[in-house]
Amino acid sequence: MISQAGIDQARLAEIARRARMSTGQVMYYFATKEHILLDTLAWCEHQDTQARRAALREITGAWGQLDCFTRRYLPASRADPSWIMWMEAWARAPHSADVARFLDDLICPWRDDLAKIIQAGAGEGIFSPRAPAEFPLTYCALLDGLAIVYLRQMPDLTPGRLAELALAAARTQLARPGQTQPPGPPPEATPPARPDPPQPG
Fold first, then answer.
1. Which of 11, 27, 80, 180 could form a disulfide with 75 if both were Cys (CB 3.0 to 4.6 A apart)?
2. Topology of domain 33-189, per CATH?
3. pLDDT tier, 182 (very low <50, low <70, confident <90, very high otherwise)
4. 3-state helix/strand/coil string of 123-184
5. Where are the domains positioned within the chain?
6. What is the pLDDT of residues 137-147, one digit of tens each?
């Protein structure tokens, strides 16, 4: 419902109906619709983290892992439910320190996983040892910006093109002198960046 109409337009009665609960039961667990938004986003992020880490374990080579990370971070489509919830939550963060802290905590696993990729790549001599320490922060910010442009301003861009732009920027900071990044997997072999999370129950 959040991805279809936005949390402000979602009716508690309809949320309860789809969850096979009464409105009173929903309100018992969630004091406000904002709590529903944030807890649903946190649940989706938990699913994303498990799937991402499982996928990264199957990939050898830091460039391949960075490619996988990038495509999973970016929206799979303009209707990507996780990204719609992130945008709804971001709109509330400037007016609530609690929401801002909550969202900072949610993004930490992404940055932590990226930092591990960069550290492993530098240790193996794949990435430049001079890769900036703040790369996880700046790269995730770049991905956020590209995603927002795709979702709201330039819908003719494709998720694959977004990944190409991001990885090109990463090469300028991570590649060793004279190094060429191996090509990523062909588009048809690339899984959706953020598959729709399985529904509970």
1. 80
2. Tetracycline Repressor; domain 2 (1.10.357)
3. low
4. HCCCECCCCCCCHHHHHHHHHHHHHHHHHHHCCCCCHHHHHHHHHHHHHHHHECCCCCCCCC
5. 33-189
6. 999 999 999 99
